C-alpha cells in the first residue's frame, strides 16, 4: 500500500510539472521563442521526455495506479505532439496562423482528460 | 600519513570513469557531485560553458553535435587508422584531421568553431576526476595511477600520460587495467611464495568494449601474456537485442511500428536497460509503457530465460574469445588459477555461469563491484607507489567472526568468519532478567569463546523494553556489512519497534593489522579445545541457574495454588534455594559436577513439574534445550 501511495505521489509530481510545461506551450510568447530557436523547442521536448521517463520508472503498479499513470502519460505524449507542431509550422506564415486554433482544440482535449481521471 | 600525501587511482574508461583512493586501510571509491561512483566520460560544449561528466550526459539530447564521448577510441591514434575511420560514422560529433595526422574533434564552443585533440578532451575528464577527489579528500591531489587497456600501444599510453600531466596530475604509473583488477583481488600477494608462474584471466565486459586479458604472475610481477576481445561489444548490445524483441512484440500485437518513433524507442530502450539490470537478480520482470506509440499501451513480461536466449549468441561470442585468447597463448584452461570479472555486464548470471562452466566450475573473483574493480586496484597501486605499507585485507569476506556477548560473557557469533560481504544477518535474542528494560549489546570480533579474548568493536544500548518475564522478550539483532566493509549493528524490540543501532568504524572492522589477524586465527586454533570446554561449561551453568530460578518461581505459584502437599513443597523449595546458592558460589564448577547437580535437582523437582504440567502449557521436559534456543534461535 505504501508503495502505491509513493507511486501516486510521483505521478502527482509529474503531473504538476506537466501543467507548468503546458502553460509554457500555451503562452504565445514562449511559442514564438520556440519557433525562432530550435534549441528552446528541444529543451521543452526534452523536459516532457524526462517526465515520461520518470513515469515509466515506476515499477510493479496496481491497476488504479496504472490508470492514473496512463492518463498522465497520454497527456505528455499529446504535449510532445504539440511541441512538434510548433516546429513544423515555421516553414510558412500561413500555416503558422492555424496553429493557435489547433493548439486550442488539443488543449481542450487534454483538459478533459485531466478531469476524467 | 599526512593529509596532503594522498595518491588516487583513476580508471579512465571509454564510457565511464571511476576514481578511488586508499586511506585508513581501505579503498574508497569516490562519488561525484551527483552521488554516483562512476562518471560518464563525456565533455559537452555549449554557447556558454563547458560541461563534464554527468552534466554533459544530461544535456546530450539537446546538443549531440557538441557532446564528445568515446574519446578513448581516438587517443594516441592517427586519423587514417582503420579503427578511427570505422568509428567516425558512429559519432554525432565531427572528427577532422589535424596536425601530425592527429584526429581532432570539432565543436561549436561559445560561438566559435574549436578543435580539440583527444588528449585535451581526456585531460578535461581527468581534471574533473581530480576535482572530485579533492572535494572528497579536502586536500590537493597530485599523484595518480591511471589505467589503460592492456592492448594500448606506446603512443596511446604516452597520449594518456600527456593528458594527465596537462590536467595537473603527476602520473606515478600508467597501469594495465587487467593488472589493476587482479591487484584489487590481492592476487599479487597470493602468489608470492611460489616461484612457478601462475595464470590469471581477466574478463572485462563494460558498457561498450569487451576485453579479455591473460596475465601471468611470478614473484609479484605481472605480465600480460595475451589479449583478445571486441572493441564494440558491451551492455548496450544486450539492451538493443531486448528492444528489438519488444518492437517485434509490439508489431505483432498492434501492427504498429515503433522503429520510426524515436521517442517511443527511447522510452523502450530506457525500460529495457532497467529490465536487463533487474533480471540479474530477479527471474522475471515487467516492462510497462503506457501510450508508447499511437496511444497504445505496451506491457510485456520478460523472463530471465528469454533474455538469455536473446543474447545467447553474444554470450557465446564472449566465451569463444576466451577460448581463442587461451589457445593463442597456448595455455590450458586448467592452468588458469584465477578468473577476475570486471565491467557491469559481468553481473549477468548466465554469463557468469558460462564462464564458470568453461573453467570447469572454478570460483570466479566477483566480490568487488565490477564497475569499480579497476579503479580499486589502481588506488592500491598508487598507495604502494607513494610508500604506504598496504595491510589491505581484500574485503570480500569477513576475515574474523563477528558477534555479540551473551549471558556468561560468551561470544555468540552472528556473522561467521569468511562470510562474503555485503551481508545481512539477523538473530533473535531475549532478556536474561525479569522486567529488564535495558539491554546492553557489545560487539566483538574474533574466534574465541569468551568475549574478553576477542577484539572489542563497540557497544550500544537498547532501552524502553516493556516489562516482561525473562526470556519472553524478542529482540532482533541485525548485523549488516556493506560492500566497503562498514558494519552496522542494530537491535529492535519486535513488538514495540523500539530500535537502536551502532555503526562500527570500518577501520576497526577491517583495521586489524595482518599480524593481529594472524594472531587471532592462530589463537583460535590453539585454544579451540579449551574454548569449546568453556562454552560447554558456561552453557551448562547457565542452564542450571535458569532451571533453578524457574523452579523457584514455580514453587511460589504452587504455594499460592495450594494444591500440593505443603511439606513436599517446602522440601523442594529448600533444595532449589540450596541449588541457587551453590551455583552462585561455584563459578568454576566442572562439567560432571554440573551434570550431577542438575540431575539431582531435576529428580527432586520432578514431582512439582509433573503436577504443574497438567495445568500449564509450559513443557518442562526439554527445558534446557528450549532455553538455549531462546538465546540463539
From TrEMBL, chain B:
Keywords: ATP-binding, Nucleotide-binding. It comes from Taxus chinensis. It comes from the Eukaryota. It is found in: Endoplasmic reticulum lumen. PROSITE patterns: HSP70_2, HSP70_3. Gene3D superfamilies: 1.20.1270.10, 3.30.30.30, 3.30.420.40, Actin, Chain A, domain 4, Substrate Binding Domain Of DNAk, Chain A, domain 1. One of its GO terms (molecular function) is ATP binding. GO terms for cellular component: endoplasmic reticulum lumen. Residues 614-633 are annotated as: Disordered. Its main location: endoplasmic reticulum. This is Heat shock protein 70.
Amino acid at each position: 500500500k505504501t508503495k502505491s501511495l509513493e507511486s501516486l505521489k510521483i505521478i502527482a509530481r509529474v503531473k504538476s510539472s506537466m501543467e507548468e510545461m503546458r502553460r509554457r506551450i500555451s503562452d504565445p510568447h514562449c511559442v514564438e521563442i520556440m519557433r525562432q530557436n530550435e534549441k528552446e523547442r528541444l529543451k521543452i521536448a526534452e523536459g516532457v521526455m524526462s517526465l515520461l521517463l520518470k513515469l515509466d520508472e515506476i515499477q510493479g503498479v496496481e491497476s488504479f495506479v496504472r490508470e492514473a499513470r496512463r492518463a498522465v502519460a497520454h497527456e505528455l505524449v499529446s504535449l510532445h505532439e504539440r511541441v512538434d507542431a510548433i516546429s513544423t509550422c515555421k516553414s510558412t506564415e500561413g500555416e503558422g496562423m492555424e496553429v493557435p486554433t489547433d493548439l486550442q482544440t488539443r488543449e481542450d482535449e487534454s483538459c478533459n482528460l485531466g478531469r476524467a481521471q | 600519513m599526512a593529509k596532503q600525501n594522498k595518491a588516487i587511482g583513476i580508471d579512465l574508461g571509454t564510457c565511464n570513469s571511476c576514481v578511488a583512493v586508499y586511506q585508513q586501510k581501505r579503498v574508497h571509491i569516490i562519488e561525484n557531485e551527483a552521488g554516483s561512483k562512476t562518471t560518464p566520460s563525456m565533455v559537452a560544449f555549449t554557447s556558454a560553458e563547458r560541461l563534464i561528466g554527468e552534466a554533459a550526459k544530461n544535456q546530450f539530447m539537446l546538443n549531440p553535435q557538441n557532446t564528445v564521448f568515446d574519446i578513448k577510441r581516438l587517443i594516441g591514434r592517427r586519423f587514417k587508422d582503420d579503427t578511427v575511420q570505422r568509428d567516425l560514422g558512429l559519432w554525432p560529433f565531427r572528427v577532422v584531421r589535424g596536425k601530425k595526422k592527429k584526429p581532432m574533434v570539432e565543436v561549436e564552443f561559445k560561438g566559435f568553431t574549436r578543435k580539440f585533440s583527444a588528449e585535451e578532451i581526456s585531460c578535461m575528464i581527468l581534471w574533473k576526476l581530480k576535482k572530485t577527489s579533492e572535494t572528497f579528500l579536502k586536500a590537493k591531489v597530485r599523484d595518480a595511477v591511471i589505467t589503460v587497456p592492456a592492448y594500448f600501444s606506446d603512443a596511446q599510453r604516452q597520449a594518456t600520460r600527456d593528458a594527465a600531466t596537462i590536467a595537473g596530475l603527476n602520473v606515478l604509473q600508467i597501469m594495465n587495467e587487467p593488472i589493476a583488477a587482479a591487484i584489487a583481488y590481492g592476487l599479487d600477494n597470493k602468489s608470492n611464495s611460489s616461484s612457478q608462474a601462475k595464470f590469471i584471466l581477466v574478463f572485462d565486459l563494460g558498457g561498450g568494449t569487451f576485453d579479455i586479458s591473460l596475465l601471468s604472475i611470478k614473484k609479484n610481477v605481472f605480465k600480460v601474456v595475451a589479449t583478445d576481445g571486441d572493441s564494440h561489444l558491451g551492455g548496450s548490445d544486450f539492451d538493443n537485442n531486448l528492444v528489438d524483441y519488444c518492437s517485434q512484440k509490439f508489431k505483432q500485437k498492434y501492427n504498429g511500428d515503433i522503429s520510426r518513433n524515436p521517442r517511443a524507442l527511447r522510452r523502450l530502450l530506457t525500460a529495457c536497460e532497467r529490465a536487463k539490470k533487474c533480471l540479474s537478480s530477479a527471474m522475471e520482470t515487467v516492462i510497462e509503457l503506457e501510450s508508447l506509440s499511437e496511444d497504445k499501451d505496451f506491457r510485456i513480461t520478460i523472463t530471465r530465460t528469454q533474455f538469455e536466449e536473446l543474447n545467447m549468441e553474444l554470450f557465446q561470442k564472449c566465451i569463444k574469445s576466451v577460448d581463442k585468447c587461451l589457445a593463442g597463448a597456448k595455455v590450458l584452461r586448467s592452468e588458469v588459477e584465477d578468473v577476475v570479472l570486471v565491467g557491469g555486464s559481468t553481473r549477468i548470471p548466465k554469463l557468469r555461469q558460462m564462464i564458470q562452466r568453461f573453467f570447469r566450475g572454478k570460483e570466479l573473483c566477483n566480490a568487488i563491484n565490477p564497475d569499480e574493480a579497476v579503479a580499486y586496484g589502481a588506488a592500491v597501486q598508487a598507495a604502494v607507489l607513494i610508500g604506504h605499507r598496504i595491510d589491505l585485507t581484500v574485503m570480500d569476506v569477513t576475515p574474523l567472526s563477528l558477534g555479540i556477548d551473551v549471558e556468561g560473557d560468551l561470544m555468540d557469533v552472528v556473522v561467521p568468519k569468511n562470510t562474503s560481504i555485503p551481508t545481512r544477518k539477523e538473530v533473535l535474542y531475549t532478556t536474561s532478567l525479569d522486567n529488564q528494560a535495558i539491554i546492553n549489546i557489545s560487539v566483538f570480533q574474533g574466534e574465541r569463546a569468551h568475549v574478553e579474548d576477542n577484539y572489542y568493536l563497540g557497544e550500544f544500548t537498547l532501552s524502553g523494553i516493556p516489562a516482561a518475564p525473562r526470556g519472553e522478550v524478542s529482540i532482533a539483532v541485525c548485523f549488516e556489512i556493506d560492500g566497503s566493509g562498514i558494519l552496522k549493528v542494530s537491535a529492535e524490540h519486535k513488538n514495540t519497534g523500539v530500535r537502536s543501532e551502532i555503526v562500527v568504524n570500518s577501520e576497526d572492522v577491517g583495521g586489524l593489522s595482518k599480524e593481529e589477524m594472524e594472531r587471532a586465527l592462530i589463537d583460535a586454533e590453539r585454544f579451540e579445545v579449551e574454548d569449546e570446554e568453556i562454552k560447554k561449561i558456561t552453557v551448562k551453568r547457565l542452564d542450571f541457574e535458569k532451571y533453578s530460578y524457574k523452579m523457584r518461581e514455580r514453587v511460589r505459584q504452587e504455594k499460592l495454588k495450594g494444591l500440593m502437599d505443603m511439606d513436599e513443597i517446602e522440601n523442594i523449595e529448600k533444595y532449589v534455594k540450596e541449588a541457587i546458592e551453590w551455583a552462585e558460589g561455584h563459578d568454576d564448577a566442572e562439567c560432571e559436577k554440573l551434570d550431577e547437580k542438575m540431575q539431582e535437582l531435576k529428580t527432586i523437582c520432578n514431582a512439582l513439574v509433573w503436577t504443574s504440567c497438567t495445568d500449564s502449557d509450559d513443557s518442562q521436559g526439554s527445558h534446557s534445550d528450549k532455553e538455549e534456543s531462546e538465546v540463539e534461535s
